[in-house]
Amino acid sequence: MSHSRQLQKAARVILIGAPGVGKGTQSERLLSRFPQLASISSGDLLRENVRRRTPLGVEAEAAMQSGNLVPDSMILNLISSELKSKGWLTPSTQSSSSISTSSSARESLTLSPTASFILDGFPRTAPQATSLDTLVPVNFVPSGRVYNTDFHAPKVPGKDDVTGEPLTQRQDDSIDTWKQRLRKFEETSRALLEHYDRRGCLWRVEGNSSDEISPQLFAEVERRFC
Q: Of the residues 63, 65, 81, 153, which has the maximum number of CB atoms within 10 A of its CB?
């Protein structure tokens, strides 16, 4: 891996890819390459708030115990709370740069111009992306091509040929099961990708392994933000 690089502009990143495409690997490599980036995982935030019994965590736990999904507004509040705790989201002093959140308080907030992070786990749908726009203006959305078991089957089942990292498909998964999961992802992600394409921040990358994709991803981040 190359040496770390300094970001000159704030990068607010989302990685979108089908199961097994290696989003976690790329996220770890981006964090290592660009130390200013932070990882903000909605799943981790949810678990941490439940564990610490915060007001948001108690509310989320109650929703889950009732068999309901955690509402998008609650996930946005978790992300907002995390950004505030990092000092990246503060009460607005200038209305021209303020963000009106979707919370009932309609609080005006300003996002720090230096806040750079990768959002993990949210948004997964176009409506969620629209909600997120009110809080965080995402400016880079990489979409990765799927590692396709039909046309480029791995030599060792469940392992990436080059890196040896585990693929999402397990040895006991059938091709049909994997295709079904892929179709479900494509159905939900199509509108999401279109949303960010219209925003002008979508970038697509292709490769048969994580090691093929990483250099392309690094180069594009450097071109946009360094």
A: 81
Angle between helices 42-52 and 72-85 (to 10 degrees): 80
Quick one: tokens of 209?
């392994």
pTM score, two decimals?
Answer: 0.79
For residue 41, the surrounding DSSP H or E stretch is strand 38-41
In a domain, 61, yes or no: yes
Q: Which amino acid is at 139?
A: N
- Could you give the CA distance from residue 58 to residue 43 in angstroms, rounded to a whole number? 15
CATH number at residue 93: 3.40.50.300
What does the pLDDT profile of the chain (226 residues) look like in tens digits?
Answer: 457 899 999 999 999 988 778 899 999 999 999 999 999 999 999 999 999 999 999 999 999 999 888 999 999 999 999 999 999 999 876 543 445 444 434 468 899 999 999 999 999 999 999 999 999 999 999 998 645 444 445 556 555 544 555 655 554 567 788 778 778 888 889 999 999 999 999 999 988 888 899 999 999 999 999 9
